[in-house]
């Protein structure tokens, strides 16, 4: 992730993403923030002083622990992390179940077999938040421009009611998912939608695991 490749729309995505999580963490108390695909502690700045931060990254930064900021990064592929059930259970025990897992900056849309991966994520007991590219034409054009700057040639665009997929020359497939489709899928694993923000370029979703329907609706209001 190179800022020099960020278009105005991508910068807008990052800006709105930070505002969404800052606002969320002002209203909802968590003891640990888990960022999957964190790069170099990318969202550590959103957490409160009394939160801990854990990044999951296959190519972690050289400095793996920031004691003064209560942050750490572990080197692990995302799928493998969610299969480490003993570790996840220990995390939940240590933090009294007050854990938020973030899939940032369209992370879900860049995974191989993204819905299979999302189903694996949903089996974990964490609350869940996702940052997503929109399926709008504006977002699709912005994604195309962004990948061009990254040196990835987009050869085709596939559209369905559930997603817009960019098919790239290197075999990479990048998805942008319709939020209603994702809400239905994630809710089937016992989550309740707590908060949503939708824009022309990006969407943000926050779910609570096992929350009652009324509780989720009250917090969303």
Summarize this structure as a short list of keywords or feature phrases:
single chain, 221 residues, alpha/beta, 8-stranded mixed beta sheet, 3-stranded antiparallel beta sheet, globular, disordered C terminus
Mean pLDDT: 92
Sheet of most strands: 8 strands, mixed
Poorly predicted tracts of residues: 212-221
- Helix/strand order: HEEEEHHEHEHEEEHEEH
Would you give an account of this structure?
- By secondary structure, the chain is of the alpha/beta class.
- Helices cover 34% and strands 29% of the residues.
- A hairpin with a 3-residue loop joins strand 7 and strand 8 (163-168).
- It is globular and about 45 Å long.
In short:
Strand 3 and strand 4 form a beta hairpin. It contains 7 helices and 11 strands. It has helices at 8-27, 78-83, 85-94, 114-122, 137-149, 179-187, 213-220; strands spanning 32-36, 52-57, 65-66, 71-75, 99-103, 127-133, 154-159, 163-168, 173-177, 191-198, 202-209.
List the helices and strands and how they pair.
Layout: H1 8-27, E1 32-36, E2 52-57, E3 65-66, E4 71-75, H2 78-83, H3 85-94, E5 99-103, H4 114-122, E6 127-133, H5 137-149, E7 154-159, E8 163-168, E9 173-177, H6 179-187, E10 191-198, E11 202-209, H7 213-220
Parallel strand pairs: 1-2, 1-5, 2-4, 5-6
Antiparallel strand pairs: 3-4, 6-11, 7-8, 8-9, 10-11
């Amino acid at each position: 992730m190179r800022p020099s490749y960020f278009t105005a729309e991508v910068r807008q995505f990052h800006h709105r993403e930070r505002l969404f999580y800052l606002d969320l963490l002002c209203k909802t108390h968590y003891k640990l923030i888990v960022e999957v695909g964190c790069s170099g502690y990318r969202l550590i700045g959103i957490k409160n002083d009394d939160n801990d931060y854990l990044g999951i990254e296959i190519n972690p930064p050289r400095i793996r622990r920031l004691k003064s900021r209560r942050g750490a990064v572990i080197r692990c592929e995302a799928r493998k992390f969610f299969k480490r059930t003993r570790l996840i259970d220990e995390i939940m025990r240590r933090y009294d179940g007050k854990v938020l897992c973030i899939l940032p900056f369209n992370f879900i849309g860049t995974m191989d077999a993204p819905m299979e991966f999302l189903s694996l994520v949903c089996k974990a007991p964490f609350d869940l938040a996702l940052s997503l590219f929109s399926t709008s034409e504006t977002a699709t054009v912005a994604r195309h421009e962004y990948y061009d700057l990254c040196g990835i040639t987009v050869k085709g665009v596939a559209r369905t009611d559930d997603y817009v997929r960019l098919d790239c020359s290197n075999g990479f497939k990048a998805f942008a998912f319709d939020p209603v489709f994702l809400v239905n899928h994630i809710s089937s694993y016992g989550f309740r939608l707590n908060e949503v923000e939708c824009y022309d370029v990006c969407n943000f979703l926050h779910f609570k695991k096992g929350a009652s329907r009324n509780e989720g609706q009250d917090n969303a209001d």
